[in-house]
């Protein structure tokens, strides 16, 4: 897994995977060096063939030796490049898989605050972009950067053997040309960074709009979204054009340089031949190697520019995804074992970053097995209280305890396994109903999953579906009604079989008939467990053990429902408002949260 004190850089991630697959990368490098050596050798051997031909028929077998060497080197060149291709095909896709898995694993462990500040689609695009960029970087290094670099060095060595002044002059020219192109490529890197960022933003925006297509249709916003995407795509295309024009400018400058310099080097070699300094074959070698070096420097420059582009995309993805987790487990954190389920909030204060405090010095003890309802106006801190208990956020001051253990000292995975939650908006994957229910406990067998589904009254609508429990629910459960989604959420919580249950408006999406159908399921879920429930319908809480009324981050009332109704406080006023506003025919009957005799037989019980 990726663990770092700062975002990973492309160089660090490249070194990591080069070491992970070191033997394959080593074989690839050896094959590249060998292939380039054979290529250079074949160019030199052409000179030997020319000299042997120039010597005439009296040269004997010399010409055939030269032809044999040339044939061997050409064959070796092609064979070794196939080895390079085999190593690349075996290695580079694996690197992409590993990188995506590591980025995905790191991404999943970010806090809610991290995701609240970013587009989900943009993050998903960056994970894919990072793998694609990594593949391109490795592929370009193997085929377009290392080979021309080795070829230039090897050609200089071969030219030195022919005429050292030629080699020195050509090396100086290539050095100046390559350095100038490298500097220009570096200056163009911000253009690639800008393009990578724009591309990721546009991808995220598309996913965001598609995910909320219902709102788009409902508010007739198709033209607005089209116009917004049009502006975003044109901004992305503008950034892309700037990056591409920069690349083309570098290629044009280099092309002119190759044209002029290769002509000058060949002319110099011809002059040396005229003065008897070098042989005709060496003239051919000089021309061939000079053109090869200059062409290699062009390929190298183009590859460096392309790598700079991909490097920018990789850097952008790593910078966004691999930021250190802002809510990691403490060093030495131990799994929590919940024996009873007593909850304690000790002087807890909390406020979201950049906002006013939500909770103020909250001091609260909830005995094990107690069912507590939480009510209050919007923004009072109800959902924040549940989020802090799950350690999605960390209190600014104070501590939260379960059975006397500070939850900050335990592992987050074990904490969340000890808590079953039925949220207001049920989280569903585009998978089957069975898989969605089993998500709470992957080790559960099918009988346990079906028992939880029946207890949550899912069976009555699932059996009417084309493939029953194997029916996919669509993205975010779009094929199901709100009540059906919520019943699946309740089934999931029942299957989790956790000692602590959190209900966040668990019946908000249910009509009266559906609500009555699952009251027994909720009773089964809550029996023998510590329960915290946020409910808009106060009638759902009337048989709870205790009611907390929150207002502006403070507990303003705390007592049994019956005791609070006898007073003239906030709970009694809210009750009267709801009783007067709700028609008698639509009022929900009082749920039996306790009466075990009214519950259906269960196929499972809470695990210790």
Give an overview in words.
By secondary structure, the chain is α/β, with parallel strands linked by helices. It has helices at 10-20, 22-54, 62-108, 112-116, 120-162, 164-187, 189-211, 213-218, 222-274, 280-321, 382-389, 412-417, 433-438, 446-455, 459-462, 482-496, 512-526, 561-566, 570-581, and strands at residues 343-350, 359-366, 371-375, 397-402, 405-406, 419-422, 500-504, 530-534, 546-551, 554-559. It has a six-stranded mixed sheet with strand order 6-7-8-3-9-10. A four-stranded antiparallel sheet has the order 2-1-4-5, covered by helices on one side. The two termini are 31 Å apart. Mean pLDDT is 76; it is low at 581-608.
Write out key terms for the chains shown.
disordered C terminus, 608 residues, 4-stranded antiparallel β-sheet, ABC transporter transmembrane region fold, alpha/beta, 6-stranded mixed β-sheet, elongated, 19 helices, Rossmann fold, 61% helix, single chain
Shape: elongated
Q: What structural class results from the helix and strand content?
A: alpha/beta
Q: In the residues, how many domains can be counted?
A: 2
What is the number of strand segments?
10
CATH superfamily of the largest domain: ABC transporter type 1, transmembrane domain
Q: What is the correct CATH architecture of the largest domain?
A: Up-down Bundle
CATH topology of the largest domain: ABC transporter transmembrane region fold
Q: Describe the largest sheet.
A: 6 strands, mixed
Average per-residue pLDDT, rounded, comes to 76
State the separation between the terminal residues, measured CA to CA. Answer: 31 Å
Share of β-strand residues: 5-15%
The first-level CATH class name of the largest domain: Mainly Alpha
Continuous helix count: 19
Task: State the helicity in percent bands.
Answer: 55-70%
Order of helix and strand elements from N to C terminus: HHHHHHHHHHEEEHEEHEHHHHEHEEEHH
